[in-house]
Write a structure and sequence with these properties.
With about 300 residues, the chain is of the alpha/beta class. It folds into two domains: about 260 residues, Thiamin diphosphate (ThDP)-binding fold, Pyr/PP domains (Rossmann fold); about 35 residues, no CATH class. About 30% of the residues lie in helices and about 15% in strands. It contains ten helices and ten strands. Helix 1 packs across helix 6. The chain starts with about 20 loop residues before the first helix and ends with a helix.
Length: about 300
């Protein structure tokens, strides 16, 4: 990185990813996004779980947490509720988010918490030397599946839309300009926003060579992101390339609804509707006593 304000988001620790890893592009796009949004170093919280992708907050001079495997979302929700004045960004991977962390993901999306989740999907557990992940293609020969993976890949964008997320985007780590735009769009959105980043692993991910040649922009092709049926079709196409080497891979805003209240707004609405109803906790307890509830 050049010696610009963007560099002020870095804490001086050199990233420990493999040389040429696509995650360097993600880190650069994210800090440029922070810079262009005018976010102060203490004006954002970046939270992660465990894995190559989850190392990202370790290199930043921002608020942040490196949490347990699969548990970045509970920590992020807590941070958001405690400090609603600053944005919360989660950096996670396909194994961290969609295996041990899948239940947290579904319910965080369903409740529409106002956080941005960036999932770096390399379709394997790379840090532990090439085990198959929930998004690995059928037949992939990981270090623990020498005869090939048997189960179908889990599609994170389909899962997010079906779970109730109010914004779902997709980008590729090879295109920093597009990546930065998706980060900015997601952070502008009020509600649960997912950015699925196609991020082939340089060391183990040979199944994703030349992926950049198959990308096409949804918005440039007239995609209507507020149409759920169209969004689910676009989400489904990301893995067409597993069976067809010539299949296009859609990127852009897959799904977006601005009329879905985020969790913060739901709480504020309930509070406003019940303003002045209770003078103390005893009033609430009295109302909930069995003799009152059964009336």
């Amino acid at each position: 990185m050049s010696d610009t304000r963007q560099n002020s988001y870095m804490n001086g620790y050199a990233p420990s990813w493999c040389p040429g890893c696509s995650y360097f592009n993600v880190l650069s796009a994210l800090t440029e996004c922070f810079d262009e949004r005018g976010i102060a170093e203490n004006g954002v919280c970046v939270i992660s779980g465990i894995g190559c992708s989850s190392r990202l907050p370790l290199f930043l001079n921002t608020y942040g947490m490196h949490t347990l495997h699969g548990r970045p979302l509970p920590a992020a929700i807590g941070a958001r509720l405690a400090r609603p004045d600053i944005p919360v960004v989660v950096t996670t991977g396909d194994g961290d988010l969609l295996s041990i962390g899948a239940a947290h993901f579904v319910h965080a999306a369903r409740k529409n918490f106002d956080i941005t989740v960036i999932c770096l999907d390399n379709r394997i557990y790379a840090m532990t030397k090439n085990q198959t992940s929930p998004t690995s293609p059928i037949g992939y020969q990981g270090s623990l599946t020498p005869y090939g993976k048997l189960s179908a890949p889990l599609n994170i964008s389909e899962l997010a839309i079906g779970s109730g997320a109010s914004m779902v985007c997709r980008s590729c780590a090879c295109d920093k300009t597009h990546l930065k735009k998706m980060f900015d769009d997601a952070m502008n959105h009020r509600g649960f926003s997912l950015v699925e980043v196609i991020a082939p692993c340089r060391t183990f991910g040979n199944q994703q060579k030349d992926i950049s040649e198959r990308l096409y922009d949804l918005q440039a092709n007239g995609h209507q992101a507020d149409d759920k049926e169209s969004a689910m079709r676009a989400a489904a196409h990301v893995y067409d390339s597993d069976s067809d080497a010539n299949a296009g891979i859609p990127v852009g805003v897959v799904w977006k609804r601005d009329d879905m209240l985020c969790f913060d707004d739901q709480v504020e609405r309930v509070a406003a509707e019940n303003k002045g109803k209770y003078s103390s906790i005893n009033d609430i307890l009295d109302e909930l006593r069995p003799d009152n509830v059964n009336r």
